Amino acid sequence: MITQYQKKKVKPGLIELDPNECAILVHIETQYINYDPENKTTPVVVNKSNSYKKIKIEELDKQTNLGNYATQLIEKCKYIHPSKHQQLTNLLTMLKERTQQNKSKIEVCTTTPITPSDENVRQTEIPKAFNDSSLTQEREKEQTSQSTVMQKQAEENRNQLDSRGSKSEKISEELKREKMTESHKRKEKEKLQKRQRRQQLKIEKELSKNKPKDVEKADINNIEKYMECLYEEDNIKRIEATYCILQLLHSNERNITAMIKNQALLSCLSRILQEERKKHTEFITNILEIFFVFSNVSEFSDVLTQYKIGMTSMQIISQECKRYDIMQSQVTAIANENISSIEHVNNESGPTTDKNLPSENMELVIKLLRQEKLLYVCTYILLNLSETSIENELKMVRIDIIKYLIKTLERENPFSELWLIQLFYLSLLFLHKLSLFRENIGSMKQYHLIRHLKRLYTTLCKNSGNENFSIIEAAILQLLLNLSFDNEVKQQLCEWEFPELLYRCIQKNETPTSSKEIGIKILYNISTFAGKEDLRSALSANSTWTEMIIENIIKFPCKFVEENLVALAINLSSVATVHQQWSDPEVLAQLFKKVQRTLDPLLMNLINHLILQSNPITKLKLKKYIHPMCSMLTQSMKRENVCQTSTSLWFYILKTMQCFDNVESLDLKWSDVLIQYGLVQLFMDCLINTNGNITIENDIALHILIITGVFLSDDKCAVHLAQNEQFVQLLIKTVHGTLYIKTYFDRSFLEVVYLFTYHNAC
């Protein structure tokens, strides 16, 4: 039996306000972790439960110092870390505002009786003697109109008071209803969690039913006695004997050497394993765990091969996969029942029934768990054997190990992930090892591995808060990285919408940095599929994805941006929509600002691609960047000795010169640029000192030749260059020495010679 230890781990989580009471909720996640200190296997979370601690807050008034109050709460509650002080202060501020708003909403305003305002009542002096009848009629009409206005205003004020009262009543009713629904949902979730805990305890109890309660301390001298017990009819005695042998193997390393030399013991175990492999799962699992201990030592692989342990393990895996196919319909039915019960908690109507797991379903769940453990041990033995010899791995491939590993990824267990997550992880590691050979990738495509990986990834995404998810996610990404070099797999990844999943993985803050880097490498591999522009379009289908890439480049924390990230951006810049988005003046300004600070050659290459594919209108906007580019060229040569300039800096200079080539159509006074930044001397230094790197030397000479042709389009600039005989001789010498083989550059050279000749003749 693989010895496992369990420890309890409490992790504080989200801190939020109580939706109903004047209190703060601190969410707590309690995890029970199994680990094996001897084999140093990856710790696995067996069970976890979520709870919360409610901290009631006294009534906050205007004189309360919220900062000091938050400090007192942190000192009293051990689940709140001091780093959360600012967040706790903000929550107290929100709680204070909420209590004041609730008071103002529920209060019913009382007002004084309405009287006509001074504006509507006109005080008019009535003369003592007034005999004109027409004027009296007008005055009566005016008084009646005033009275109607006063009555309308009184009615409006009454309606406002009624509406205020009804609004306050509605608000109070809504608050009560929300309180009822929230408390109802919380109670239902607590009921479901209790039910799941009870089921988990019941499952563990059933699993340990056949485990011997009082196992005697094993002694190496009693090994023959244990061998005799293996032939007993009582299954419990046989299991107890295997536990004693495992106890000996785990207690002392010398016992391992002694047992591997005991041919009688190995013959007995291998014979029973072959005879009983279809009958008693738990008994067979314990025997396989004994051979698993031997397989951890590479020197014993020949002994395991001699007793055909690898072949027997393959037969057991094949047999258990067939058994799972038979009971898969029952497993799916149980899974649907479990999902419906969980979704029922989110439904406001009707409480969830708190029934125990039926006995039939319990038997099926126990079968699944024992089967998963058996498959885990068999797969681990095969993985250890494959690492000792390439011949063993080839035998497994011929017997179709890839088919069974992919079939393992289809499994589901709706009630317990005790062994399933470990089995998934082990299968993915095995597939990752096999994917190193191109021949095995064909079999993986034949059995639709990409489709199964998509299903597994999306299923586990629902439980992304679980620590096991990050482990499985990393294993899936490593496997996809090996597969993404195949062109057919690249198409399948786009068909199964993996780019969207990869972008989400990169965007999440909780994703480890290593997983983000692997995700970027996979996206880059997909973008390199030559002749398939639809794949690049699939990678840039959503503008938020491309926006995220350029933001990561601009905000990259290190001096030089990660190579695969820039390479992915360069490939995606060929897509019209992406190029239009990244050619925005604000984006280009940020890129130029970053490259001016870091002198990153790959980032300069990205800018060069954006300029190369720009339309004439966009190139006109780039006119203002000519002087910064010249300044960057001179700065790069001044930062270190020209003779000791690194290859990366020469590459940066080369890409900056290419930018000059791409903006040659701009109407600029090149003579001012040439003289202001001393570009002639800079070009001469570049031609003389390139550290003997022929490739860089040829490329720099070529682009200096092209830039010279651009400068010669300006008459003043042409005269200035023609007068510098040293530069002209050096340019001709360099071109003759390095570019005479490349005949496709003859046109550029002849154009420059023609321009020099033309200006000299003038």
Protein described:
With 762 residues, this protein is mainly α. It folds into 3 domains: 1-107, no CATH class; 220-579, Leucine-rich Repeat Variant (Alpha Horseshoe), CATH 1.25.10.10; 615-761. Helix content is 68%, strand content 5%. It has a 3-stranded antiparallel β-sheet. Strand 1 (5-17) and strand 2 form a beta hairpin. Helix 1 packs across helix 2 (85-106) and helix 14 (401-408) runs antiparallel to helix 15. Residues 153-193, 201-215 have a biased composition (Basic and acidic residues).
Structural class: mainly alpha
CATH class of the largest domain: Mainly Alpha
The first-to-last residue Cα distance is 96 Å
Strand proportion, as a percent range, falls in 5-15%
* Gyration radius over CA: 39 Å
* Strand line-up of the largest beta sheet: 1-2-3
Mean pLDDT: 76
Query: In percent, how helical is the residue content?
Result: 55-70%
CATH topology term of the largest domain: Leucine-rich Repeat Variant
Low-confidence parts lasting 5 or more residues at pLDDT below 50?
106-136, 342-355, 641-645
CATH superfamily of the largest domain: Leucine-rich Repeat Variant
Oligomer: single chain
Count of distinct strands: 3
Biggest beta sheet attributes: 3 strands, antiparallel
Shape: flat
Region (Disordered): 102-215
Biased composition (Polar residues): 109-118
Pfam family, one: KAP
Biased composition (Basic and acidic residues): 153-193, 201-215
